[in-house]
Amino acid sequence: MLIVGLGNPGSDYKATRHNIGFMVIDELIRRHNASKISSSSFQGELYKFQNHFLLKPLTYMNLSGESVVKVKQFYKIEDVVVIHDDLDLPFGALRFKKGGGHGGHNGLKSIDSKISREYVRVRMGIAKPANKGEVASYVLSPFSATEQKCLPEWIDKCCDAVEFLLTHSLEETRCKYSQKAMEC
């Protein structure tokens, strides 16, 4: 299985809402002591544990599909899971689905164009800004101080869900780990 966390490279983006996928991958790397695989042709940071791959595309969000398709094709991987931020869900929500639309998320749009929509999505709710015109600055801003207190627990729960998904069905994972929001 290829597990992809979406985000943007660089210290300017490290703690932003848009990088929640990177945060989850970092924790999975730590939990499994995953080995780094070096190859600039993948356009991302790639790690492996057991028979599974962890990927942080370094193409910036809008071109994430470039990295995903290269790893998927090189290793002939069928099953892909993408962990991403979702404006349409309240903060702390955790949802799971296969396929569906990209909802305006440029990272998903890029992946859809390269490998189709038939992959599992782990949707992590970041809520919406008060003004629709502030979406770009909102997703690229850090979590609030209150939200930051909840991040470790939320990231842990997402990692638990992804690990469960490795040996269980999407439906079983959805039933066990979906949550509507998180109280901080």
Number of helices: 6
How does the helix and strand content classify structurally? alpha/beta
- What is the makeup of the main sheet? 7 strands, mixed
Ranges where pLDDT stays below 50 over 5 or more residues in a row are none
Query: Which strands sit side by side, in order, in the main sheet?
Result: 2-3-4-1-5-7-6
Would you identify the CATH H-level superfamily? Peptidyl-tRNA hydrolase
CATH architecture: 3-Layer(aba) Sandwich
**Would you list the SSEs in sequence order as H and E?**
EHEEEHEEHEHHH
Q: What does the radius of gyration come to?
A: 15 Å
- Strand % is 15-25%
What proportion of the residues is helical, as a percent range? 25-40%
Count of spatially separate domains? 1
CATH top-level class: Alpha Beta
Ends apart, CA distance between termini: 32 Å
Number of strands: 7
**What does the overall shape look like?**
globular
Q: In terms of quaternary structure, what is this?
A: single chain
